[in-house]
Amino acid sequence: MSADASRALKVITGSSRFEASAKQYTVAHAAADLVEAFPVPTVSKDVCRVFMPVGTPEFQLRVTWSLEDGPPTGPSAPKFTELKMGELAVTAADRAYVYFACRSDRLSDASRVAHIDIGVERWGTPKQPEGDIKALKDAYATVAHSFSLGMAKELRCEKNGGIPARPVLEPV
Asked: Do residues 166 and 84 touch, judged by C-beta distance below 8 A?
């Protein structure tokens, strides 16, 4: 996770301390699972979960990946702001998704493109986001960007799947 994403987690959760996830919750493990699943579309699978320290108010973020049939089509839901990263990036005050295309020698058919969705969302009982909504949207987008870039690099996607080195937070 990037330093920007670490700061973004503090905006989202209000804390800079978190409980450790299980050892299998890594980008490398998620990438290996994706390679094994390719080219079949999948339901969302965990990259990792972010938990608050024991003894603090319960808060959990879930970071997921999935293989899609193709690039995203159609308009985004009204609650989302579109950003220019990958094929499409969208963010809201409680979640963000980055969709990107990956062509890689790690995939069983390097001539085919994998369409990947990385999601970051608050898990559990839905609550109205509190605080600076723009800051929350930027924070969720930053975390989604960090995991997307990490996954693209781990998969060795050509041109990092169109994921820039730094998050793009200006709306399309």
From this structure: no
Integer Cα distance of 2 and 5 in angstroms: 5
Check if the beta carbon of residue 91 is closer than 8 Å to that of residue 52: no
- What pLDDT digit, counting tens, does each position of 100-154 carry? 999 999 998 888 999 999 999 988 666 777 789 999 999 999 999 999 999 999 9
Pairing type for strands 114-123 and 60-68 reads antiparallel
pTM, to two decimals: 0.92
DSSP output for 64-113: EEEEESSS--SPPPTT-EEE-SSSEEEEETTEEEEEEEE--TTSSSTTSP
Q: Is the peptide bond before 53 cis (omega within 30 degrees of 0)?
A: no
For residue 89, what are its two tokens?
Answer: 């990036």
b vs e for 76-106, b when ≥16 Cβ sit within 10 Å of the residue's Cβ? beeebbebebbbbbbbbbbbbbbbbbbbbeb
Give the integer Cα–Cα distance in Å for 100 and 98: 6
Mind listing the pLDDT tens digit for each residue in 29-56? 999 999 999 999 999 999 988 776 666 6
- Write down the number of H helices and E strands in the chain: 3, 6
